[in-house]
Amino acid sequence: MGMLEARVIDDRRQWNEFIASTPTGHLCQTFEWGENSEDGAGKALRVGVLDGGRLVAAIMLSRVKASGLPASFYYAPRGPVCADPTSPAFATLIDGAKREARKRGAFFIRVEPNVPQGDPVWPTALKQAGFHPTDHVIYLRSAWVTDLHPSEDQLLAGMMMTWRQNIRSGARKGVTVRLGQGEDDLDAFYRLLVETGARDHFYVYPKSLYRDMLANYSAENAARNATAQMALLLAEYNGAPIAAATVAALGEWSWNLHSGSSGIPEHRKLRPNYLLQWECMRWVKAHGANYYDWRTIPDILEPGQELYGVYEFKKGFGGSVRRVIPTHDLPLNPLLYWPYVTAVSARRAIQRRRRQQFERQREQTRTEKP
């Protein structure tokens, strides 16, 4: 290894090729991830380590406004990316990230590496770099992953029987799935997403975020900048969109990103999400992906847990749990950092109690119904 230099990187293709080819690489560390909102451009910080012009370590940091404070911190979703955290490149990367974050007024750095739980070296390397574990998770640690190496027939055979039946019956009953394109299809997707968010109580970002993502990860940009390719798929019945989903593929990996479906009873009876997700899996497999990351599932896999129903749906398609190491923080200004995390912990505890109370009341109402 020659002379290592940490600096801000602006070469998209060089960055994305490194992220896609490194085992800890992830969609959320691609160059474009920091631009997926109307105010995203210019706020992301991309620090890389060059060894004779070759990128050997990288971290894409999103700037986050600290709630209740006139200050910001930097967050690396599923980063940093480095093949060997015990190498000098990793230490150089963290030093460079600290320097650049301080220059921009950040008071801490939060990372959530794409490193499987049980890894023998990453936790020690992070500790040596000044990080400590925290329970202030932004991106949940557990995901459901389906191995796409088998043939389509083998993948179907590996699913739960009801899932196979729902995929086939949806197609038999006239549900069709096609690739979306243009503003009309984006509008249809967003309507279904908003409807599902209201029904299932999850936050939906402004439409501009999804528009940006589809543009940033278009087939043209994927070819030019070596970034991920993203697709919008729409399930339709009698010409009307009844379910929609976005997926992305980068190297061996793919991700199930956002999905929504109609709440109309006639549409729900068709169970379009089964056929839709099967077509998503077929699309990413055709684009070279060997793994389908369904993203978040609950930390505790027991009925009654938040997201448990979503987990059961994902599980039926076959696969296994993939859990990553904990979130880690690196304080840059301890006098600001420790009071801030203490206040956030207290606020989260109150929110958790309220949510648990709401769930208990909802369950009680359900059982009291005649």
Can you offer a commentary on this structure?
With 370 residues, the protein is α+β, with helices and mostly antiparallel strands. The protein folds into two domains: 4-139 and 324-364, Aminopeptidase (3-Layer(aba) Sandwich), CATH 3.40.630; 150-289, 3-Layer(aba) Sandwich (Aminopeptidase), CATH 3.40.630.30. Helices cover 40% and strands 26% of the residues. It contains twelve helices and 15 strands. Strands 1, 2, 3, 4, 5, 6, 7 and 15 form an eight-stranded mixed sheet that branches. The chain has a seven-stranded mixed sheet with strand order 9-10-11-12-13-8-14. α5 (161-172) crosses α10. The protein is globular and about 60 Å long. The mean pLDDT is 93.
Summarize the structure.
This protein is of the alpha+beta class and 370 residues long.
CATH class of the largest domain: Alpha Beta
The assigned structural class equals alpha+beta
Strand proportion, as a percent range, falls in: 25-35%
SSE string, helix = H, strand = E? EHEEEEHEHEEHHEHHHEEEHHEHEEH
Fraction of residues in helices?
Answer: 40-55%
CATH superfamily of the largest domain: Gcn5-related N-acetyltransferase (GNAT)
Number of domains: 2
CATH topology assignment of the largest domain: Aminopeptidase
| Count of DSSP H/I helices | 12
Instruction: Kindly provide the radius of gyration, computed on alpha-carbon positions and rounded to a whole number of angstroms.
Output: 22 Å
Distance between the termini: 72 Å
The chain-level mean pLDDT equals: 93
CATH architectural arrangement of the largest domain = 3-Layer(aba) Sandwich
Biggest sheet statistics: 8 strands, mixed
| Low-confidence segments | none
